[in-house]
C-alpha cells in the first residue's frame, strides 16, 4: 500500500500482493505475455478510493471519453463536501445536471447512493464472496452492467481472475497480439485466456497496456 496526494487530499493506493507470482506464471504459460510483461516495468493494477466512489466514477464515465469523464467527475466531485452516499442523496438535481451529468446518470447515481445507504449491497462481506455473487449484487443497481461490475472486481477489489469478455479493448488486444489483427470471437478470446488462469485480470491488464501504455485508474 502507498499513499499519494491529489489536490491536497491523501489517497491510499493498494496494489495486488499476487502480481509478481502472476507475472511469472503468465510468462511461463504464454508467449505473448512473456514479451509484453517486461515492457511495463513495475507498473500494475491499482485500487484507490472507496467502493462507492469507484462505482460512481464508473457511472459518470459511461459512453464518454476518458478526458470528458474526468472533466465531469471533477465538477461533480466538488458538489458534496465529501463523496458519500448520504451527501449525494442531498444534492440538487439541477446542480448535478449543471456539472455535466445527463438526467439518466443522475438517476443512476441516486440509485447507487440508495443501495449503499440502505444496506442493499454488502460491502463488508465482499471480501469473502465469490466474483459472480458480487456481480449479481452490483448489476441490481441501475446503470451498472456486467462490464462495470467486472471493472470493479479488477480495479477496486483487485480480484486476480476476471476475464471481461465484453470489453472492446481486451478483444482488440487479443486480435492484435494473437491473431495478426483478424476479428476475434468471444470463444476465440476464451480459448486464448485458458492459459492465463488463475490470473486473467493480470493478463487483461497487460493486453490493455499493449494498446494504450498509460494505465486507466478508477
UniProtKB/TrEMBL annotation:
Record field: transmembrane: none
This protein's UniProt keywords: DNA damage, DNA repair
KW Transmembrane (keyword) present: no
Pfam families, A to Z: HhH-GPD
Ranges where the HhH-GPD domain occurs: 60-212
CDD domains linked to this entry: ENDO3c
Alphabetized Gene3D superfamilies for the sequence: 1.10.1670.40, Hypothetical protein, domain 2
Listed SUPFAM superfamilies: DNA-glycosylase
Catalytic reactions on record: Hydrolysis of alkylated DNA, releasing 3-methyladenine, 3-methylguanine, 7-methylguanine and 7-methyladenine
Protein name: DNA-3-methyladenine glycosylase II
Organism: Variovorax dokdonensis
